[in-house]
Amino acid sequence: MQRPGKPASAVWGISPGRRKTKAPSSMDLFQLKLFQRISERMNWLGVRQEVLAQNIANADTPSYAPRDLKALDFTEHLKKLAPVAPARTDPQHLAGTAAAVSPIDDTKQRNPYESAPVGNSVVLEEQMTKLADAQSSYQLMTNLYRKHVDLLKAALGRGV
Description:
Largest sheet: none
Shape: flat
Distance between the termini: 39 Å
Order of helices and strands: HHHH
Helix content: 40-55%
Structural class: mainly alpha
């Protein structure tokens, strides 16, 4: 049905003499590993913030031990990928060496140095520091996400 005063082409969004083109379909950014890792990190930071907030809320609860999440390990993601060896473009190039093993043990658990008389070992300053770190890391991930989306838009010619 045609509206009074407007041609059919204006009602349906068709320019006279041109065929209507289909709008480009949107790309799922989460098919890209970068956006999967950013999303995973943001989810982890959100859950960590909840755990730290619970620690702060239970600072006066007797016998409460602070909890924290196991840190996301980027090397676990790298282990899932196929190993990459450097390409030797000249036979006189050195083949390379194995990566050195770090002498620092990052898996040690810290013994709380402060404990309340009722057995609570929540250190508010420590929890607040961890909370601020989680917030700044979340902001960093948000900025990375936004910048990469803008980069993809610029590459596709849609502008920023």
